[in-house]
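Q: Here's a chain of 316 amino acids. Please give me its 3D structure as tokens.
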Amino acid sequence: MKAEEGRVPIVEIIYLAVIFYILTAYIAMPVILDATVLGRKESLDSAFDQPSGTPIPSQTALVSTKDNVTLSGWLFPVTAPRAWIIMLPDPHRNRSGLLPVIRWLTKSGYGVVAMDPRARGESGGKYMTGGLLEAQDLLATIQQLKSQLKGQIPIIAYGISMSADAALIAASQSDAIDAVIADSPYLRFSDWIQFEAQQRGWPHLPGLYAVARLWAPVITGKSEAGSNSDLTSMVKSIRVPVLFLKGEDDPLLTGNDLAALRSEIPTSTTAVTFPKGSSNTLYTLNMNTYQNAVNDFLIGLLPKPEPQETPEINEK
């Protein structure tokens, strides 16, 4: 009798196991995942490269966001810019990762502003939000640096991965942007969280990534981080040209995803698919093709030269 009284019923064991699983899979793991993926990466701060080798000396650019985060960046003021390009990097890099493209663009006569997104590089903030607050940050950058962006010329938003989403969302919300270059955007925040988790070896548990999205506003303190609005629903208000750049095997932007995005944008779009790479590797793995695609797009935005009148020849 005493031995039987000391046993824990199997039902209680199962009950405790279920509770432990729920607490682990849907509270502890999502919280840790959000903090890991969205939180500041100190390694990006320590691996900061200064813009040596650029033909135009950089100036420091500082921007204050609506929630009092200070964003840090570089401004490259070419003498007579053909256009101004506001650049935001992939969230795995700070703005120094854009230097190869910056060097090429400034040599080609384009003024460049390269900013660290919030919670990355030298910018302030503890957490990213998946592109929504970053879109507002992009518009704040354009507004606050407007006096330094001299010339009545196009302003192009250029972003990679999450920053590509930010550029597209910003263009849908304001007419301050004249065109968008979107390198490897993704459709949904939860898709990106899932991809980042799997890259880190996290287990694929049912509902984990959906729950992580729900916890994101709590962890970041920003309600925008919990949005899972499909990007296709956000781009319907874009009224400017868009260039999409994607890798052939990009897991976050399939060919069908790209077609869906383009079909919802009521203005002209161009898409270039590269055989190698995705996100922050497209440029380095497809340099010549990438430069040609961006160059053709930018030239198409510039005013066409007015035809010169042929002088009349009076024959005697």
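Q: Can you summarize the key feature?
A: The chain has a mean pLDDT of 89.
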